[in-house]
Amino acid sequence: MANILEDAEDIRRRGGGILRSLENLPEGCREGIRLGEEVELQHLEGLKPRRIIIAGMGGSAIGGLILRDWLLDASTPIYVSAGYHLPGFTDDETLIIAVSYSGNTEETLTALMEAMERGCPILAVTSNGRMRKISEERGIPLIPLPRGLQPRASLPQQLFSIAVALRRIGVEAPWDEVGEAIKVLEQLRPQLAPETAPEANEAKSLALGLWGYIPHIYAPRRMEAVAYRLRTQLNENAKLPACSASLPEGFHNAVMGREGPEELLEKLAALIIREPGEGERLKRRINAFRELLEESFGRVLELWARGRGLLSKILSALYIGDYTSLYLALLYGYDPSTVKSIELLKRVG
User: Fold this and answer.
1) Closest CA relative to residue 155, chosen from 145, 165, 164
2) What is Dmax (Cα atoms) for the chain?
3) CB 298: neighbour CB atoms within 10 A?
4) How would DSSP label each residue in 152-200?
5) Which of 107, 224, 236, 275 is catalytic?
6) Identical fold at 2-13+178-332 and 39-175?
7) 204: left (phi > 0), else alpha (psi -120 to 50), else beta?
8) What is the structure's pLDDT at 346?
9) Cis bond upstream, residue 174 (ω within 30)
10) Coil, helix or strand for 289?
11) Superfamily per CATH, domain 39-175
12) Of residues 9, 137, 252, 343, which has the active-site annotation?
């Protein structure tokens, strides 16, 4: 099985656009910064909203989830709304950031119309479609994402364009972490590349460790979006069922799964996302949690984040996880770019 991940030429051929997007992730971050600097915010410049809601679905929501976790300590609360309707507390002091890569996401377009009806300040983020048309007709500030990507591959442009726009709008945050985060991604890139052998490539090693198991992903609360991203990348790229949970919350429920039927547990692999500088209480609990899972799960693995700042930790773990999902797709013989089942559901009226 390992020899499948030793043929770099074959990996490049089968990895296609998903692989190219991963290799260009640092450049995508810089493109996002440029998009955020160039957007004409109009009346939003210096707005300092009371709260922010990022409305999006699937791959178009991940940027918002990462911002929510990274800016958890910011004075302006950030919520992510994944559905047709905005929360009841939404009012004209709530900034709505509507994100739809295609511009045609039914749920997000419905939320956008609600935001207009409630008189909310709005920022649209899209590559095309009805959202772009509505924004241009209504004079809504618009961040134009690059076209031709899978929605989930537009993450760096989403994340950093919105982050820069929020800085210009007046949201306080540790913006000095951005430079370090991109540098860490650049340092990781050759380590995760197709040409790097499995024994020296953490993503390939993790993919081989997860092969043949159903992944259960656990992460500290500040890395919750990373666990979600890895779960959904395993769903979409590797076509695998997977689940995720945050810690310490999982110590109060998810840990009980280890007491289930042995014939089911032996098919599960726990992947625990760790970060440098874990608090001592959390560290002790995670170590004990791992030991308990090792007694019953088929396999228990760890993924360690890199860097000093929280953004570096989030993006480095995400980068390793994204590559892991790609290599696992290739191990199973799947095309990581296809999303047939999602397309089938979109046809339902």
Assistant:
1) 145
2) 60
3) 15
4) GGGHHHHHHHHHHHHHHHT----TTHHHHHHHHHHHHHHHHSTTS-GGG
5) 236
6) yes
7) alpha
8) 86
9) no
10) helix
11) Glucose-6-phosphate isomerase like protein; domain 1 (3.40.50.10490)
12) 252
Centre a 10 Å sphere on the Cβ of residue 150 and count the other Cβ atoms it contains: 18
Best CA proximity match to 151, nearest among 237, 84, 227:
237
CA dihedral 159, 160, 161, 163 (to 10 degrees): 90
The one catalytic residue in 85, 133, 267, 346 is 346
Domain borders along the chain are 2-13+178-332, 39-175
SS3 233: helix
Known catalytic residue at 114: no
Three-state DSSP class for 12?
A: helix
- As a CATH number, domain 2-13+178-332 is 3.40.50.10490
CA 7 to chain centre: 28
**Region label for 173, one of left (φ > 0), alpha (ψ between -120 and 50) or beta (otherwise):** beta
d(CA 185, CA 314): 11
Q: What average pLDDT does the segment 313-334 reach?
A: 98
For residue range 39-50, list pLDDT tens digits in order. 999 999 989 899
Catalytic status, residue 43:
no
283 is catalytic: no
pLDDT digits (tens, 9 = 90+) for 212-232: 999 999 999 999 999 999 999
The amino acid sitting at 60 is S
